[in-house]
Amino acid sequence: MSNQLVIVESPAKARTIGRILPSNYVIKASMGHIRDLPESSFGVDIEHGFQPQYEESRGHGHNLGEIKTAARTASDIYLASDPDREGEAIAWHLQEVLHKVNRKAKFHRVTFHEITKSAICRAFENPGEVNMPRVDAQQARRVLDRIVGYQISPLLWSRIQRKISAGRVQSVALRLVCEREREIQSFVPREYWNFEANFSPESVPGRKFRAKLIKIDGKQVDVNNEAQANETAQLLSSAAGWSIGGLDTVCRKKGAPPPFITSTLQQAASSAMGFTANQTMQTAQQLYEGITLESGPVGLITYMRTDAVAIAAEAQTACRKYIDAVYGSDFVPEKPNFYKTKANAQAAHECIRPTDVSLTPEKLRPFLNPAQLKLYSLIWQRFVACQMAPALLETKTVTVKNPGTCGHLFEFKASTVSTKFPGYLAVYNFVNDETHQQQDDDGLHVDPALLNQLQIGDSCKIMDCKPEQKFTEPASRYSEATLIKELESNGIGRPSTYASIVNTIQVRKYVSREKGKLVPTDLGFRVNDYLVSSLPDLFQVGFTADMEKQLDSVEEGNVQWTDMLEKFYSSFSEWLTNAKFIDAPGNDKADALIELLSAFNDWEKPAPSAAGKRPFNEKTFFSSIVSKHKTGAPLTAKQWGALLSIVAKHQDKLPELPAIAEKYGFTDELNEAQSKLDEHLEAVKEREAARAEAPAFQPDDRLEKIFECGARVKWNKPEKIRNRVYDDAAFFDSLCRQYKSGRKLSDKQIAALTRIVRKYPDQFPSTSLVPAEAPVELDSDMKAKIEAMLGAFDKLESWNEPTVRRGRTFSDKDFIASLKKQHESGKVLSAKQIAALERMASKYNLK
Question: In the 3-class helix/strand/coil scheme, how is 742-765 assigned residue by residue?
């Protein structure tokens, strides 16, 4: 039998599919993308059609090697990555790489929206080819994001601070959050007053109900200060002749909500369970890829990145049969419920639903962790509800009026809502009681039993009428759920990107999460203000939404991805140029200052700088400015500021400077530069004074011995981690040079030196050269807590898949195993390890 190779993204997905396919299918996991744009360079050849310069993803070497080995002997290679843009791109990259390994193998693209036997068999019976328009859409998005990120971020470094970045879509999300916060900050509350009173109907002695004043003299209540409120309260207390003026009954049908798509699932999980968008997607991924039941791994839900509410006919029929069997025929509508998918949704996708409706949450309780059970229950209930009959709700309203003998007509209202037929509420969001105790703007809710005893004309006595001061409130801050809803309503982002968008602006410290709400940080405000002022067109909500539509057009095959990028870049490059020179000086200012300095020769000599840093040379800098200026290129704001700093420093040697500044209108800028220079010089004096007062350098016998031993150490080879090279020998030598030059090592440097000595125990006599690590003692409560948390992880059956970030693989399971091994060996966990353990327990909802 020929060898068939199947490649999916994750080991969990591989295990679940492995139960379904015959034994001659070898299944491997790619662990996500095997190729991507380089991490340390731009990686896009703009001059030659925006060609991406892909390289194999770091951290995938061993894994990709196994896949290549398996591919060499395969007759057929099935690419079974997820059915969306990212999945299609993964499939294409695999095909590009593996075709070079085995040119005789046939490549097949198989897609499915649920990991069930029927879906997998259909997919493998009807394989297709890689969808290149979909791949092109992913490439276009990736290149777009790289262009914006790489070319905008340097502007932030020069204007705001180093090591921060901008994103094409994330920056628009940040803009929404900042604009909402500014709206809240500028909001001016408006005072208003509510009036509620108890009424005792004479026809039902001993009973009373509470109602809300809704009209005065036939108009809506509009009382906006305390004087008016007191006057109204007195009129109400003195009014007589109160009676039941109206009893109205309205019945209405309330239809079930549609099944979940990605955005609505994230919103519901946030509202109902407090899940973050990331937590929702991670948990949903586990349910989709397979949970181990008694029969083995089973995919429990359909694909969770979707914006379509379509339901497979087979699943719809099964759901209706289940409803009939469990709830009765009255709960099954005459025709199946269908829901309209929005125009730009992915037509081939389905909603998020259980793969088998008969697998109820209760049946799966023994196999799911708490987070999985909560999310599966939500998905299951919503899907079953969407195929049930509507609820029938009856609203009864009672109105209480006075005859107007006091000179004013007052009208109070109260109501009750009763469920006459629960319909879908029997399974989803059902309140198990006849009334829904909620307040609305039309009045207060009243006991239905009392309301049924009232009749029009019944006299009532007013009691306990009290005014209540209120103030209008601003719009609420966004939560993750409401921000995703806002992004979706504006056409920004897609199901696969919502979670990463809201997560990225938090990871970058532009937004913090306070009590479940998103609040811009000072850095977030500064970044947003700069981007919106300097690149208003690029970070406009409408423009970003239009780019999403263009990516959809690429996926549909209507637009070439390179044509789309060409059109974008022609506008973008102009915007970028304008942004670079937004605060630049006019040519007249620059000409005047350059002409003045051209005759200047008393330049300051470059000061010695720290090792590895190039000293600033005034003369060389000015020469570079002159050369650039001669080409006709304008000075940037940063270059202009540097020139002003130089002339401010030499102002006493440039007598013509004040007159020139006055003539060309940069006196204020010159004064500001002088102030900054004075502040800098004052700070330098303070540092020098502090250095002079510091005790003289004293040799340290222990350090002398360490550096003497270091000359004979056989150092490990330099190690590269996350784009940084860690070289023990070079670091040790730098500390040695600093010490021998008479400069004291800082506490941090000594701590780092101590770690290096302990790292080479056979080559340093560590017991005599460095102090032993102080033992850490944990109290009995903390020990018990650690053991309880580690014990809870022993019962965990489903772990998140390992992730690769910046070339490193992060595995929750391996991390917990290492902590457990350390704990069981008698070694004490550090404070950082305990904190990480607590975060991990919270992540998996373990107590």
Answer: CCCCCHHHHHHHHHHHHHCCCCCC
Give how far Cα 129 sits from Cα of 139, 476, 537, 556, Å.
18, 48, 38, 16
Q: Which residues contact 563 (CB under 8 A, 6 or more apart)?
A: none
Q: Token pair of 335, please?
A: 């025709």
Distances (CA, A) of 464 to 197, 199, 446, 743, 802: 6, 9, 16, 80, 63
Is residue 498 annotated as part of the catalytic site, yes or no? no
The C-alpha atoms of residue 571 and residue 770 are separated, in whole angstroms, by 61
CA–CA separation, 729 vs 670, rounded Å? 47
The string of DSSP letters for 452-479 reads: TT--TT-BEEEEEEEEEEEE--PPPPP-
Of 209, 182, 185, nearest to 198 by C-alpha is 209
Tell me the per-residue pLDDT of 120-156, one tens digit each, with 9 for 90 and over: 999 999 999 999 999 999 999 999 999 999 999 999 9
Place of tokens 């029997």: 426
| Residue 63 to residue 546: CA distance in whole angstroms | 39
CA angle 251, 254, 259 (to 5 degrees): 175
**Chain-centre distance of CA 503, in angstroms?**
2
> Given the DSSP bridges, would you call strands 460-471 and 391-401 parallel, antiparallel or unpaired?
unpaired
Of the candidates 33, 32, 46, 35, the residue with the CA atom closest to the CA atom of residue 150:
46
Q: Would you give the DSSP letter of residue 432? A: S
**More confident call, 473 vs 712:** 473
Distances (CA, A) of 475 to 172, 180, 367, 506: 19, 8, 42, 21
In the DSSP assignment, the letter for residue 435 is B
Which of the following is catalytic: 54, 78, 303, 376? 303
Distance CA 626, CA 620 (A): 10
pLDDT tens for 151-175 read 999 999 988 988 899 999 999 999 9
* 249 beta partners: 396
Using DSSP's 3-state secondary structure scheme, residue 701 falls into helix
CA dist., res. 288 & res. 12, Å (int): 9
